[in-house]
Write a structure and sequence with these properties.
The chain is of the alpha+beta class. It contains eleven helices and 15 strands. A hairpin with a 3-residue loop joins β9 and β10.
Length: 372
């Protein structure tokens, strides 16, 4: 190596050192160096903080499940019972149904309080609540669903109100849905009638439009047959016959069905038997003219009908033409005819009219109106 080469190396080294000094002493270099050293010191200080907890990664809590079984009172599994799950802080509910074994389940549930609502058609709903722990497989106790209790309110009416209700039903009884059939009851335990009920039935029966039409037809038949000849013919004769026939119907209805029963405390209605031998039913029907039930509920002689029949015949003797009521036996014969008509009416009530009437059997049998 020559001298020139030997001097070259030191010169190059001195140039490199000079450039390094210039770089380190410049403002930009100093700020970068300070930032670097500060970051190193800050990192060192943080790592040396004695109370700083160690950083831990966040993991979700394990999910759980809720399951159970639903049976009825007999222990049989309930299929397709609806189970609704309600949880706090959740806007929507979860819902499922039980399978053929009565089992149900909810899975992948976060821990926390919950409530179950169980329902099934025809059975009382059930409620159940609890708290699901993290990762727990919660099994409910066996859920037993029962038939809901039926509450029937029975209002016991006083006898007077009960009789009022039953009379209202009797006033709906009509043969062929047209002809009044008010004087029959289809209840053995019918409430006793007060005088106001007896007069109400008599008034309803005597003033019913069908009754008036029937009286008009009978008056026409009597005029065509020239019955009660002294009344004559024409409109005047028809009016007299109509008046006499209606007076007969009106008097018999009120005397035998309202006045005497109220005075003697007897029931003017026919009590339908409907059961037993035919002989016993015939005896009940035929004997209704002379045997009745009193307001006290006991059977007794039908004084009301007997006295009423004679009183009605005596009243009839006052307005009929003299030629048609001759002889002392007129009142007796007319009274016996009325008693026979009552027995015939009993036969019809017992064996015929229940099959033809509207609201006959059902009206009184179904009107408990609070009776036990």
């Amino acid at each position: 190596m020559n001298l020139r080469d030997e001097n070259l190396v030191p010169l190059q080294l001195r140039a490199f050192c000079l450039c390094l000094v210039v770089f380190l002493c410049s403002p930009g270099a100093r700020s970068q160096n300070v930032s670097f050293f500060r970051s190193v010191q800050s990192t060192s200080a943080v790592s040396q903080e004695p109370n700083a907890p160690p950083a831990q990664p966040a993991f979700p809590e394990p999910s759980g499940s809720i399951s159970g079984k639903i049976v009825d009172q007999s222990g049989a599994n309930i299929f397709r019972a609806v189970v609704k799950l309600t949880r706090e802080n959740e806007s929507s509910d979860l819902e499922t149904t039980s399978n053929e074994d009565g089992l149900f389940s909810f899975s992948r549930l976060p821990p926390g309080p919950f409530a179950l609502a169980i329902s099934s058609p025809g059975l009382a709903s059930q409620q159940l609540s609890g708290t699901l722990e993290s990762g727990e497989a919660y099994v409910t106790p066996v859920i037993v669903m029962v038939i809901p209790t039926q509450v029937t309110e029975v209002r016991v009416l006083p006898p007077d109100e009960l009789a009022t209700e039953q009379v209202k039903e009797q006033e709906k009884q009509r043969v062929f849905g047209l002809i009044p059939n008010f004087y029959v009851t289809y209840r053995d335990d019918a409430a006793p009638l007060a005088p106001k009920h007896k007069f109400e039935l008599a008034w309803k029966s005597a003033t019913d439009p069908v009754t008036l039409i029937g009286v008009g037809v009978l008056a026409g038949i009597d005029q065509a047959a020239d019955r009660w000849h002294d009344y004559g013919q024409g409109a005047q004769g028809y009016a007299k016959r109509f008046g006499a026939t209606y007076a007969n119907v009106f008097g018999a209805t009120f005397i035998g069905g309202a006045i005497m029963p109220s005075l003697l405390k007897q029931d003017p209605r026919y009590y339908y038997k409907g059961t037993g031998s035919k002989r016993s039913r015939i005896l009940r029907a035929v004997g209704s003219s002379v045997w009745c039930k009193g307001d006290n509920g006991h059977w007794q002689p039908n004084y009301s009908n007997v006295i009423g029949s004679f009183a009605g015949a005596g009243l009839q003797a006052l307005y009929l033409p003299a030629n048609d009521r001759k002889g002392s036996g007129f009142v007796l014969s007319q009274a016996l005819i009325r008693l026979g008509e009552t027995s015939l009416a009993g036969i019809l009530q017992e064996f015929v009219l229940p099959k033809l009437g509207r609201n006959n059997n059902r009206s009184q049998r179904d009107v408990n109106a609070g009776s036990p």
